[in-house]
Amino acid sequence: MTDALPEGVAPPPERTVAQDAQLALLLEVTGTPKPGNVDRAHDHDDLRFEHFVTGAVGALPGLRLAADGEPVGDAFERAVAGMSQQAAGNTQFGALLVLTPLVRAAADGDLSPDGARAVAEATTVEDAAGFYRAFEHVDVAVEEPPAGMEPLDVRRGAAAIPTLRERALTLSDVMDRSTDVDGLAREWVGGFERSFHAADRLLDTEGPVPDRAARIFLELLADEPDTFVAINHGQATAERVSEQAAEALGGERDPWALADELVAEGVNPGTTADLIAAGLFVALRRGLEL
Amino acid sequence: MTDALPEGVAPPPERTVAQDAQLALLLEVTGTPKPGNVDRAHDHDDLRFEHFVTGAVGALPGLRLAADGEPVGDAFERAVAGMSQQAAGNTQFGALLVLTPLVRAAADGDLSPDGARAVAEATTVEDAAGFYRAFEHVDVAVEEPPAGMEPLDVRRGAAAIPTLRERALTLSDVMDRSTDVDGLAREWVGGFERSFHAADRLLDTEGPVPDRAARIFLELLADEPDTFVAINHGQATAERVSEQAAEALGGERDPWALADELVAEGVNPGTTADLIAAGLFVALRRGLEL
Hints:
Shape of chain A: globular
Structural class of chain A: mainly alpha
Distance between the termini of chain A: 20 Å
Order of helices and strands of chain A: HHHHHHHHHHHHHHH
Strand content of chain A: under 5%
Oligomer: homodimer
Largest sheet of chain A: none
CATH superfamily of chain A: Triphosphoribosyl-dephospho-CoA protein
């Protein structure tokens, strides 16, 4: 009875931009195996699937602010605050950092590398302040700041805001200073290239969407060492994991066995998962069907 | 940095009533093994985990209408319409049917059997019309209507609305006529007794919430034959499945093996899963932590 609706029955609503971002968060954690990450079939001890689900539920109001034209920094901070309302703390900080500008670009009607770059470049010092405030809600693994940047260590949270204002640093400026250590900062300054690439791959492949997401996770991981792994376990480990991902893609290694190994090691390629969430969002806006 | 927030950082928002209902839908499908149902570890061929996730994302605006005081029938119809935007069709029709009045009761400040009963009893003919309109969006497995009730066969969808109006039947009246075949109709006329019982059990048990949900699913299924199984496979099968659930609870049968068997048979105790969603919602409102 779902084809021609009779008079008096409104057609189903289309998903909004913010709903697609929430769905992207949920589909990201559903795709399995994404070796090392929490997914439909894998938990870490204190970071479990249900924490991600709860995070995605809590993040929606902040994502909606981004879609409604509120400042990107404020929207991100509210998304993180809502996401943080579960025992595991930081489940989707990185995913929200890359999704928020993409949500704004979609709401502005230009969900393209140029549109997303324009959103990033239009950020202000107040957006940077929102980004720093977001660190008050969760503990995020980060590198030590480079020399001269100690006053802007993100672990200082809102205490760093006066320095941001003194130096007149926008959120885009802050990201620009982290591109050597953070794959998401590279997205911010590089037109979200890998996010859009992931979206293209999701739309080009076939089968259940979570299976595609898991496949493309391996592709991205094989292409570039995960910066979250590098921060937590060193660059050598990050490079080894990328080689293992390439082997899994090439059929020389069982991705399920690799998932078990990395979970046991506590190695969690979270940045690559964040890019998959971003790619899922773009693909959903472009018609990816479930 | 999550304890004492500095000046200028707003505390994280609490989840709204509607968000807790959405989270309940997601946690329900996360709990595993819930033998026969789609869950974190089980799919049916054309009804997969990601369809439930997508349904939960799409249902939220309708749930929000219920929380905002819109007519229960309209809110339910919009929740079903939003839920239906994925290829599997009916993922959470029943769960929404039991959640919608509970959401309203929570928003009214009395999420108790009496409060939920009051919501059910206050429904109107227009609420019944909304219920019938909801069947325009998805195909739902139902029993043949009893003699004299053919004009009100739910499969007629909106075409049955003139008859509802002629007979002045409220949504509560419609439910009252289905209690012999539908466990959710029994909830509507019986103060949502099993939903509240499930909530009590969820709050009384320990461990990860999805594991508790899976355990209590077996308890409910062992207690009473699932009416969705009875409609699709007959009462004898429904009774057999309840015995199997009791054996799984008692340790005489492996619940994972039972899950595989029931999925292979296509036997899906969906009504019991709907009660778990309702119980999760009530428990979340009462402080269930994740």
